[in-house]
């Protein structure tokens, strides 16, 4: 099967984008320079086409019950227009996916929209539909991934940029994780003050067929997934399939440092396993580190003690464009997780000194 | 179009060589730096190292990729471009000039015959 393409694929190609496969989609990885795109987001404003992200809509009388039982956060706490970061775990409490759950305004009988990672739409649709049937809940589940294009406008100037294209909306009134329907370039879009870069910004979902109108109206530096990765890495945010993966990197929210999305006073698949781990504590935990020696840490490199004993693995790493320092993320036993602990990272087999640092790596 | 100067020879793996007197200078091509994107790290041999043609002599890393570098010919390393340790972006900015990587004294000049001409390299990158 060929790769899926975002609606603006040709426009990205015309703009000189280099493409990469991501979750089964052929997406822009950079236009001209990852460093320049990264700097645009930190210093002014950039726009990402993230139409490869999945979208699932859940509605009906039992929508809340279904969402509550399949996500770890407390969905019932959401007012219309609110959203929350959450995890989807299996019976063992292992993260299958992380997601943002939006509670839609009370209209058109729509209730929730949640955003699984790229390429997870079918799996999540099947999971929701099969549990709905098993629990005999009255809820409608729809995979609307290819109904919506999605753009992320991120950076200190994001509010001005989006407001210019949406003059009738009071987007400055939205606090972080709030969302609303608003006209952007005359097209009704779902506009949320969310993002995955550490900067202020908005994620905009617009009808697939109107993608070009909305994209063209947002005056920001086009950015690819390369800079999205360096930006999220500087913040210590998780990347699905790399920092957690049910097959290759099975991790619970407590191990992955997102225990704050687990609400044990709600009932959900995996709750009992997570309650046990919450009481017992974790053996390994997610940490950041900086390399003290020259080199670049990469996914898959071993982390070792100063005596050479391998204790963990690098799940993500890069040369931080903001700091011009090599930074990375990975899992180590908790006794090595304190800030300032010195470890070694095996960069192509060579020991490089590294120091544990709690992310974010940059001051916010 | 990528710049492929006529005054040097190339490898299929995108390194270039120029000859000045007894020394050969080595770097990577415009095409290679563009494929890599922002170069953030370069690992080079040290002065005095003996290399055989085809040996891995170092690594160039961009934000998105790691690429091994191969010696075009055999010989002894006589100089390395230490400016790249602090400013690896020179490889992007000026791959045939300030972004050069190291110099060597060749031990077998016949090996130059195995390298690609500019025309042959141009065909490869098209």
Describe the fold and architecture.
Chain A: Belongs to the GcvT family. Chain A: Substrate binds at residue 203. Chain A: Its EC number is 2.1.2.10. The complex is a heterodimer of chains A (364) and B (126). With 364 residues, chain A is an alpha+beta fold. Chain A folds into 3 domains: 8-52 and 146-234, Gyrase A, domain 2; 56-128, 2-Layer Sandwich (Alpha-Beta Plaits); 284-363, Aminomethyltransferase beta-barrel domains (Elongation Factor Tu (Ef-tu), domain 3). Chain A is 21% helix and 34% strand. Chain A has 8 helices and 19 strands. The longest helix of chain A is centred in the middle third of the chain and has 15 residues, at 121-135. Chain A starts with 8 loop residues before the first helix and ends in a 7-residue tail after the last strand. Chain B has 126 residues and is an alpha+beta fold. Chain B has one domain: Beta Barrel (OB fold (Dihydrolipoamide Acetyltransferase, E2P)). Chain B has 4 helices and 9 strands; from the N terminus they run βββαβββββααβα. Chain B has helices at 30-36, 83-86, 90-93, 118-125; strands at residues 9-10, 15-20, 23-28, 39-43, 50-51, 56-62, 66-70, 75-80, 102-106. In chain B, the strands form 2 sheets. Chain B has a 6-stranded antiparallel beta sheet. In chain B, strands 4-6-7 form a 3-stranded antiparallel beta sheet. The radius of gyration of chain B is 13 Å and the shape is globular. Chain B starts with 8 loop residues before the first strand and ends with a helix. The mean pLDDT of chain B is 95. Classes of the chains: A alpha+beta (364), B alpha+beta (126). At the A-B interface, loops of A face β4 and β6 of B.
